Amino acid sequence: MRPLHRSPLARTVLPLALLLTLASVLARRLDTVVLAGPSHPLQATPTLDPGTAEPSPTAATGGTGEPSPEPSTTATMGVEPSATVPEATATATDLPAATATPALRPLYFPWLDKASAAMKVDPIDRVAGDFGRVAVGPRQVYAVEGGPPRLTLLLQNTAEQRLERAGSMALEASADPRQVRLAADPEADYAYLLYQNALTVVEGLRPPEPRKLVAAPDCEALVHLPFGIFLGCDGLRLIDLDPRDNAREIVYLSRAGRSQALAHEDGLLAAAFREPVPASRPTTLVLYHTGYRQKPRLAGQLPDIGNTVAMVMRSRTVYQLVDEEGRRGLQLIDTANDNGNRTPRLLRQIAIDGIPRALAFDASARSLYVLEESWFDRRDRIQHGQTGVRVYSLKDPRQPRLTRILPLDQPAFDVAADGGLLYVAGGAEGLLVFRVP
Prior knowledge:
Structural class: mainly beta
Largest sheet: 4 strands, antiparallel
Strand order of the largest sheet: 1-32-31-30
Shape: globular
Radius of gyration: 35 Å
Strand content: 35-45%
Oligomer: single chain
Number of strands: 32
Helix content: under 10%
Distance between the termini: 56 Å
Number of helices: 3
């Protein structure tokens, strides 16, 4: 007779089913209300009707309608055989109050909480404050804080491996830290603030000091170049930073629509423009050659790329965050050279269930960081996405690989990365610093 062998699936599923059944039975028993026992070990326990103190007729008659016979008790230790034990009469004050059995509680598995906690990564540093923006310079970290609005300079304490405040510069009292655009010079100790129709050039001293104010009407995006800064407005404005203390506008390219985001790499500028017509106002990607700074030249276009939150460009690939109904997520756009012309084309779309908020790239770690915020759909009553930071490996620039998700307790507003460190502007949670392996 052949022995009976169970498949590996059966050996896994059957014990799990038995465990769930046992847990359900234990939960029912824990929620059951146990009444006090009878005064005699052989006496039946009366069953009470809800809201009364009298036994129900069915319980008193044993379920037949006639009284149940009482067991006779004979004395054996010095008590006359004729003597009987008096009956114990239950009164309303002797019996406990009957309560309705509560509804079953959901099963609780501690290993689920342990698994969730194991995913969390504690920050290696936290700076208290209300942070809305963050950028990393060559030797410092710049952050925009609220209450009151100011630009804060933070330096690394090498002995304690912690960030320390090194001074701050006040901003306009009406400025919203979350609406300020911030960029750091990768080579010099300068930062650039774009808010309230002006670009402010700030030298990273202790405390930071403003050096130049340049008009920037209706500009909402900026990107740093080796020789200047491009501002995204109703068109493009190029600010010459040679010298930085005497920054000035040298080029203005008029274009219909409003710039949403900018990215630059090796003489190629990518700009996302939201068109003024039709009513849906689609967004178009426009490429410019910037080799000759006095006259940027149109290189190519890609229509209808979606409402753009942020962009970065690496290895001639544009990584674009899209927040639009039906296409929310990360898009990869190829900008490779085609016989002297740039013909951008959509390579890949990576869906994100939550709301994308910010984007950062770390060249040293070849990692891309996407800040995500979960949201609740009132129609479907479903929580979408996860509040945290998605970490993508860009070892293959055209095939991003999700390596991990860093959960956050509260929604954040901005991210920056450099040297394997991730900086998260978490609002009232402070400025969080993570070391990402």
